[in-house]
């Protein structure tokens, strides 16, 4: 389940930047819809992983930060499409990404270089 979750995150990360670059030409609708499908896959695999272990508050925090990242991706795409500046959203995305990386690498499930 961990590999599926990580794979969906990586594919969604790539799709986010593809949708962002295609947005300038107005051809991002299909990619954006596929990205939204990957949001659902990320959430489904994350919930599956969360309930397959003993739920700890740190894993719940990591899940909430992961949802924060998904929300920032979606809000950045929407604001960029409307022509508004998403600067503060990019800052939030970077903070959330660093936080989820730290939590993911420091918790015992998976690869743990900080332990």
TrEMBL record:
Bilayer topology term: Multi-pass membrane protein
Task: Give compartment(s).
Answer: Cell membrane
Signal sequence: where? none
Q: Which family is it part of? A: Belongs to the UPF0344 family.
According to UniProt, the name of this protein is UPF0344 protein H9655_13460
One family from Pfam that matches here is DUF1516
- Which top-level group of life is the source organism from? Bacteria
Instruction: Kindly report the protein's main subcellular placement as a broad class.
Output: membrane
Transmembrane segment boundaries: 6-22, 34-53, 59-77, 89-111
Family matches, as InterPro entries: UPF0344
Q: Which residues form a coiled coil?
A: none
Keyword Transmembrane helix listed: yes
Q: Any idea which UniProt keywords this protein has? A: Cell membrane, Membrane, Transmembrane, Transmembrane helix
């Amino acid at each position: 389940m961990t590999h599926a979750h990580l794979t969906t995150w990586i594919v969604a990360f790539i799709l986010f930047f593809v949708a962002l670059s295609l947005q300038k030409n107005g051809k991002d609708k299909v990619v954006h819809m596929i990205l939204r499908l990957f949001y659902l896959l990320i959430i489904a695999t994350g919930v599956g992983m969360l309930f397959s272990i003993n739920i700890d508050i740190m894993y719940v925090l990591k899940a909430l930060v992961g949802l924060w990242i998904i929300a920032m991706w979606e809000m950045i795409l929407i604001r960029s499409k409307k022509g508004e500046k998403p600067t503060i959203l990019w800052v939030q995305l970077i903070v959330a990404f660093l936080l989820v990386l730290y939590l993911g690498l420091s918790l015992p499930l998976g690869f743990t270089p900080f332990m």
